[in-house]
Each structure stands twice: as C-alpha cells, then as structure tokens.
C-alpha cells in the first residue's frame, strides 16, 4: 500500500531566525534597569516600591483597557507597558502622591502609545510624555524633592505619597534640592562621588549614575541598544560643558557634573534609545544624539528650568521622522546619493 | 583603514546563522541509483526556455541533446538517462506552476555509460566556439541562480576580465555540496579553472572559501600545480558571503555599481560546481546531466551528499535517504535562507538545486508577528545598505511605487533582514511581493 505523502507547508525562506524577539528585547531593558531600581529602593525605601508599582499598574491598566479583546493578553505579554510604567516611575520624585503616579502611568500609555496606534507607532517616548503631562499638571508636587530615607528605615513612607486626589499635597517637612537645582538657584556644586553613587536628592531612578551605566553596558552587550545614541549624547554634553567652562568655569557645570547630574544618564541610555521614537538610520542616530545633547545643555544652562533632559528628548522625538528621511544609508554600489 | 579592511576579509553587514553543516560535511558524495521516471523542465535556467529536439516515443541515450537553446540566454538540455521519451507536456515545477518539460522513462537494463571519447580539444577552440560549446553543454550557475554560464563568458568589447573568481563560500546553512566537491574533486576544480582562465584571458584565478572549511582550503591549495596562477583566499564566515557582489567586495575590495555586473570591474565569478561541470564537459565529454545535492535537515532519516541525475523526482532522492521522518512539515529546494518550498515530492531536481532540506516543527512553526519597533537590526543586517524596515512598511501599505525611491530593486532577497527581525516581520517576502507587483503589473486600460 502506498504511504501517503506528508502535507507540506510552503513557508517562504528564510526559515532560520536569529532568535531575538521584541518581547525579549523589552525584557532585557527591564533586566538592565534592575540595579538602578534596586538602588531606588535602597535610597527611598517603601515609597519607591509604591510609586513604581502604581505607575506600572496605571500603565498596564490603560494597556488592558484600550486593547482590543483578542489582543489583550498579547499587549501585556510583550512587556512594553510594564517597561513604560517603570521608566516613568524612575523619573518621578519619591514624595509624589501615589494617585498622581497612577495617573501618570495611565496617561503615558493612553496618550503616549495607544492613541497613536499602539506599539511601534508612537512619535514620542510614552514615559516622557506621561512625565511631561505630570509636570504641566502638578508643577509643585513634581518639583518637590525629599531626602533619602536614611536612618528612618525602609518602611517609613513619605507623607506626600498618601495625599488624597485633588486635595492640596501636603508639603513634606523636609525637602532636599537636586544637584542641578542647587547649582542653578544656589550656585552650589555637589561632589562628583555623591552623584555617581546616588547620595543626592532627585527622582527615584536618576540618582545612581554608575548603576545606570552598568545597565547600559548590559544592553550594549546584548545588542539591544543603538550605542550611537547614548555615546553621542554624552560626548556632546561633555564637549558643550567643557566649551562653556572656558568662558566662566565658576558659573557653568563641569563636563562630568553635567553627565552624572539629573536625569541625563537615565534619559540617554534608556529613553533616547527607545527604538520606536529614535531614528532607525545610523547617521540619524548620531544627529539625534547630538541634538539631544545640545538641547539638554541649552535648557539647563540658559533656560528657566534646572533640568532639560525630558524636553530635549521629546523635541528630538518630534524631529525623528524628518531625520530618518534625510539620512537614508548609502546603498551598496550607488555613489554618494543619499536616497 | 584600508589595510585593516583588507585583513577583515569581508563585506560589511550580513548575518551569522548557525551553519548546521556538521550533519553532512563529513559524508562522501554517493551516487543515487537510477530510477524509472525523469522529468526535464525546458526552463530550468534563467532566461528563455530550451526547445525540445526529440519527440515522444523516441529513444534517447544518456547525455544526448534533447533540447537546444531557445535563444542566447538559454542553454541546451541533455537526457539524464538512457531510455524513451514518454511525453512532452506540462509538468508541475518547483514554483507550483505547470511548465513544459520532457518526461523520460529510463531503460531498466541500460548501462547508463557515457561515451568518454567525446572529450574536446578545448585549447584549439576559439572563444566563440568555446562559448557555444558551454551553451550547448547546458552549463549554468550551479550555486542556485542557474544563470547560463556562457552568457557570463561573452564579455562586451572594451572590458578586460582580469580575475576568475571561483565561489566556494557556500554560505547557506546546511549545504555541503561545494565543500564535498572541493574535497573530493580538487583536480577537476583546478582543471576547469584553468580552462576558464585561459579562455577568458584572465591573469589569475582566485578561489574564495569560507574559513569554516579548512580541509577544503588545504586540499585545494595542495593540488595547485607549480606555476599555476591560482590563489585560495579564506573568507570570513558570514552570510551572504557567497553573493557574487559581496564576494567581489570581500576579495578585491571593489564595489560593483548598482545595475552592473562583476565583469564591469574585470571579474568573472563562477560557482565551484559550475567549474567542475566545465571540466567534466571539456575533458570527459559529459554535459550537465547530473549534479551534487545535499539532502539534510531534521526531517530526513539519513542525510547525505548525492550525485543525482537531473530530472530525478525529489521522492526518489528522499527514498534513497531512508525516507522522511514523521513530523516533516516542509521541504526546501536550495538553502534555508533563499531556497524555495516545494508542494509535492514529484518535483524534479534541477540544475540549480543545491539541496533538498527537510524541516520539522521547530523551523516552521508560525511565529508571532509584532509591530515594527524600528530597532534598526534589519538595516545593520542588509548587505546592500537598504532600509528594509521602511520597505516593509511601504509594502504593507501597498505603496509599491514609493519603494522604488528606496531602491527596492537593488534587493537581492538574501533574507538577512527577515533573519534578524525581532518582530518576525516577513520583510523579504513583503519586498518580493512589491517587486513582483512592480514588474508584472499591467497598467489599467484607460
């Protein structure tokens, strides 16, 4: 008796794959952020846990609420919502009322991602868009910084965290200015060692420069990040600061201070490199990074705000489609035409 | 910088698939016993199909011409067996379409010997006679494209071929036909190389071999006659090292302009199998009637490197290899990166078929597709420096005309972008769709 032939599939070549998937890449960023997240717990105690988890909850809720019924499980599994929530949380002040953090997470996904058409379609970095929303809506709460928990222990909650929605946020008895704020408003310079190890005021995830760099190295080894973007941002910021220093060393920050203060490392390594909102072309990545670096220093030094990383990245996000269009790679065998 | 690039011995970009060659790399080439049914499609090369010169019912000898070239970009076709022409009609081809072919039934008791006295005095042939002989012998590029070899030999006036480049990269995973040929028939390779080099008037022969085949590099080097202008160049293991433009870039650091051919930079590129076929024809009188095929992949019982008469149904080849394992889901003709899936085991082995690869669940499971996150991995993979992410997006929106501005026709469909894509977007398939539409679209009548 003749054996029946197997039913053959006709999937087209290539049948082999590298093995990298988008959810894996998202998870890698989560792993890379783990040390800095742990540091935020160390410095700010249970409040950090609460803020980060409410941000993530807000983001995931929005993801779940706005996804179509059959895509629901999937959009949660790809981990991009969790990542957005975590990134937003890391940029928030530790004493922020929790309901604001929740709202921020929700807005990040709703207005930062879903409304554009979901993953891969948004123009702006969702986490930064959420933060910009919070800063515009709650300027005082978003710029009130508290000192690390220190001796009072892991389980002491900042009183601001528990403020009820739409009631005046009680200003914490103790406040601590950020290094950039102290420089801008009091001309006071924070020692570099404090910046590197996180012994300063600031948002949850930005204070420990070295741990953020460590995560960046991990992402670079895993090839999950376009190294050109953080490299060009950091070099631009250092060069620009050094040039300014030539004019008035006392008034302007030193290059290393510029790099390790504020949200620059968090922004340069984890937010500017968001593949969706940064240029896809190699030359575009350089231009994007230089643009972010220049804007950061311009805003920090000449603008009204002490910190400018968020607006710098959002502005360059807006320029990304244009940059991509004019930086198409030179095709093999085609002179020096750009397109 | 230039010196450094020379040391690296590679083109830029590309990908590194696991090469999976251990399955067959050490297996000597065996001959498949002759079967009964053979189907020789008239269009098994790029260009115009051949024209049959035999009729149904006619007796044919193994190696006898059964179809003559149908034009300049076309080649002769020879009977792979001694037997009887059963039918000249339409048969199912590799791409699933019906196409004209000659069906031959082999004699059960024929000796299947080839008359070796037909060897030619190639040295006395003029270039034109040589080119015609190659065309009549039916020799095509055996690496997969099946481009008629004689067309590459006819160089327009004003172009001087300085180098004969022999492609032994075999960068497609699983395939080991060129590897085994170099190991087992290095004399034939070098003989064929010498014939080609002298006829082209080239100064030297360069044989490029990926450095994951150190045994082949060593054996070929050992067989070079003193004074023979042949150089073996080990190449970096990288896909698609065997794409001819990439190989010319690697070996000579010359970038062939878009729309031009290797000959425009003075190079003639031929696959190892093609060169051996040249030697077999001019020195042993055997036209292209059989080829080496790697049968491998997780779904085949006994993987092998086989000499298969052209026109043999895949069914017979697979049967010789112990049959298909249960769980077989797909069969690819050629390599896993650029080969074509076949729908039926009755499809015949053709001149350009370097492998029969049998895949199971693992390679063919439906992969969840995610949205493009513009990560840029495809840009870093594309050896032509295209923007596959943009091309895929445009193709999905059916904006095919816009894709021309992004040089869609420079794409050689090597599949690096799809291999690298973390979102499992079928990029190269989307590009093929667009190219197909742009090429074959009929403008609506006014």
Query: Which class best fits the helix and strand makeup of chain B?
Result: alpha/beta
**First and last CA, distance of chain B:** 57 Å
* Domains of chain A, number: 2
CA-to-CA gap between the ends of chain A? 61 Å
> Which architecture of the domain at 2-25 and 121-284 in chain B does the CATH hierarchy give at level 2?
3-Layer(aba) Sandwich
Percent helix of chain B, as a range, is: 25-40%
Q: Any overview of this molecule?
A:
The complex is a heterodimer of chains A (339) and B (446). With 339 residues, chain A is mostly helical. Chain A has 2 domains: 21-176, no CATH class; 178-327, no CATH class. Chain A has helices at 22-44, 46-66, 72-77, 80-90, 98-112, 126-137, 139-142, 179-186, 192-197, 209-221, 228-247, 255-260, 264-271, 282-302, 309-326. In chain A, 53% of the residues are buried. Chain B is α/β, with parallel strands linked by helices. Among the domains of chain B are: 2-25 and 121-284, NADH-ubiquinone oxidoreductase 51kDa subunit (Rossmann fold, 3-Layer(aba) Sandwich); 377-440, no CATH class. Chain B has helices at 2-8, 127-136, 149-153, 177-184, 186-200, 214-223, 244-252, 272-284, 314-320, 361-364, 377-381, 388-396, 400-405, 416-420, 427-440; strands at residues 29-31, 37-41, 51-52, 59-60, 65-68, 77-78, 83-92, 98-106, 163-168, 204-210, 230-235, 267-271, 290-296, 304-309, 328-333, 340-341, 355-360. Chain B has a 6-stranded mixed beta sheet. A 4-stranded antiparallel beta sheet of chain B has the order 2-8-7-4, with no helix packed on it. In chain B, strands 11-10-9-12 form a 4-stranded parallel beta sheet, sandwiched between helices. In chain B, helix 4 (177-184) packs parallel to helix 6, helix 5 crosses helix 8 (272-284) and helix 12 crosses helix 15 (427-440). Residues 1-6 of chain B have low confidence and may be disordered. At the A-B interface, helix 1 of A face strand 15, strand 16, helix 11, helix 14 and helix 15 of B.
